[in-house]
Amino acid sequence: MDIQSYMVTVGKQARDASRLVAKADTATKNRALTLTAQAIERDVERLLAANALDLNAARAKKLDAPLIDRLTLTAKSIADMADGLRQIADLPDPIGAISELKVQPSGIKVGRMRVPLGVIAIIYESRPNVTADAAGLCLKAGNACILRGGSEALHSNQAIAACVHAGLKAAGLPETAVQIIETTDRAAVGELLRMNDYVDIVVPRGGKSLIERVMQESRIPMIKHLDGVCHVYIDDKADIDKAVRIADNAKTQRLGTCNTMETLLVARGIADRVLPRLAQIYRDKGIELRGDDATRKLVPGIKAATEEDWYTEYLAPILAVRVVDGIEQAMDHIARYGSQHTDAIVTEDATRASRFLREVDSSSVIVNASTRFADGYEYGLGAEIGISTDKLHARGPVGLEGLTSLKWVVYGEGQVRT
Amino acid sequence: MDIQSYMVTVGKQARDASRLVAKADTATKNRALTLTAQAIERDVERLLAANALDLNAARAKKLDAPLIDRLTLTAKSIADMADGLRQIADLPDPIGAISELKVQPSGIKVGRMRVPLGVIAIIYESRPNVTADAAGLCLKAGNACILRGGSEALHSNQAIAACVHAGLKAAGLPETAVQIIETTDRAAVGELLRMNDYVDIVVPRGGKSLIERVMQESRIPMIKHLDGVCHVYIDDKADIDKAVRIADNAKTQRLGTCNTMETLLVARGIADRVLPRLAQIYRDKGIELRGDDATRKLVPGIKAATEEDWYTEYLAPILAVRVVDGIEQAMDHIARYGSQHTDAIVTEDATRASRFLREVDSSSVIVNASTRFADGYEYGLGAEIGISTDKLHARGPVGLEGLTSLKWVVYGEGQVRT
Questions:
Q1: Contacts of B374 in chain A (CB under 8 A)
Q2: What is this model's ipTM?
Q3: Beta bridge partners of B365
Q4: Which residues on chain A are in Cβ contact (under 8 Å) with B378?
Q5: Nearest Cα to Cα of residue A329 among A365, A359, A291
Q6: Total-model pTM
């Protein structure tokens, strides 16, 4: 197979399909989503059989247990995929809305229309359900997409794509609106990242090594998420019960997610009342603490945190803890060591809450709630293609709107410029 | 001079200054803008003297006349610079506004706050007035900026920067919020484009070769404008007087701007009534026409347009003309040859106007008005840092809002995720 000419064909087909999807009406797009959901429900056995091929190969290759876990489809996860598509069908269609229409001094009326981005490439790892989710979101936002899943999931992804194609076809939309890359050759990704004529945006979803590779190679703008070094700062004006509940939840509710707290900052004035209580909770839940000197005085027996700990996204039962003088030092710490993902303050002081919200430069800034809320569903987006730590375009959880853009529309009555 | 360490110093200073500018209140930022305007008015003689140094060097190097024209400051252009800064001071401050605040099922309130981008690098060519404009816009939007003007304008830019620094200092803001690169070594640009730790966004402003160099080298997201291959399509349902007026203005009001029409598309059913009239106007104004066969039958004696003409941004008294069957073929032509910048339709048919607005994938889409309106001032933005032909973030004319971003803000009362 000539990878380059294969990828150019995929790119051209996507570009052509994108023009048809962009002008499809809401009912047609929703019909494609609903019919895809039905195809998935009808094809449960076929999907499980395809997934079994991938799972057998993965076990034969002795891939690790978490990866096999992510790769596994079940009757339940297949039903969830179909439900997810129906939920996307239920979301309002963002495309075509015109906002901010105003008459200008020249007499022209100027506004902005929400439009699709065009062609979106999504590069992801082992979870096959991303194939259905991503295809559904791109379609609803009027985009064509090119999906490159993990090589270990190819059979599963092909089986899911067959359901998507059935849905598209039955709704009268081109099957090429959703294409999966049919080769596991890694050179295909390199080609994809250079096709800026055919691809408008790349969304890499996966571990840091994947994201870094895409950042190195891509000539195409990205919606990406790099690090989640998230902080909770417990202010000396905090309600202690709230502080304990939030710091507990932010670390322990799930360890491996990007919005999990990795460093806890505690104001000196309240440290002796919250840190011993929290240390007990963390000890009971098997979380290793690494602290600065002041923390280690209050919580004896824990390891000293090194400079490197402050930069680290553990994604593991480890938490760095530092006692700070107050909000100023907390914000300095976050600016220096954080990853601009999600940071929270616990305080009853409204002025400090406002300062934290305004001055901490992260994609989500939270007062008196857990960092774990930084999520498209919790934010009411109805869906999520990923979380962005970039500042351009979409920041934080990216839903349908993040897969669209605004263009200017002008209505005149023969005006010319003088 | 060690360019790399110099640039790292500039970058770090910008990052530190950006945190202070981000939290400056509106009155402080406006005071800096007004005081800079006053400093510019007070320093007219000094600015003209610095500019004379640049002009003498440019003439000695026999740089071409248009460049020397762009380089020249006059008492009038200096007064305009000061007025521009006062206009920026009069614009509403976009920073800090919270929108879309909604209670979610968990009880948290989620909204979005408009925030600065951080550090903006602007790379531009010979016009020294960009130094004041760009500094003013970046400052008003709460950003620090690093300005790299043309080497031929260094003395002028330094003199303008001295006024900006006086304004910043008198308002209590760090002078490092606006830095110009003090070396003309081109390696400095290469360093700048790799400083993704210190620079959040790059805005290249200039000719195509500058933009292409920045695209090749930059590891930082950009707001950029590449080509302006703009079209006017005259539909067979057009009002002929409007069509003639618009097609005349779009080409001839200014030849060298990115929103100037480069290709005229005319529906077959109306071509014999508009093309001869337009050809007469263009002939009188010295515009060379290049047409397809159908055009050449109606306008004898003009050159045949080649495939390459359809792709060309002339920025010159040349216009490509094609007769098309109707709106469908016009939109196909625009999709194939256009640059997604600005395209207009002239028609009295509301359905066709809507289709054109929705389906033409350009940053500005216009009904019954000249393409020349695609401009930040004409659109009511109050100012313009540039025009973007990218799809992410800002499309089309970019004003203050394009120098900002939205972050998520969450208000809780102790909520945790379950």
A1: 408, 410
A2: 0.91
A3: A409, B343
A4: 104, 106, 108, 110, 417
A5: A359
A6: 0.90
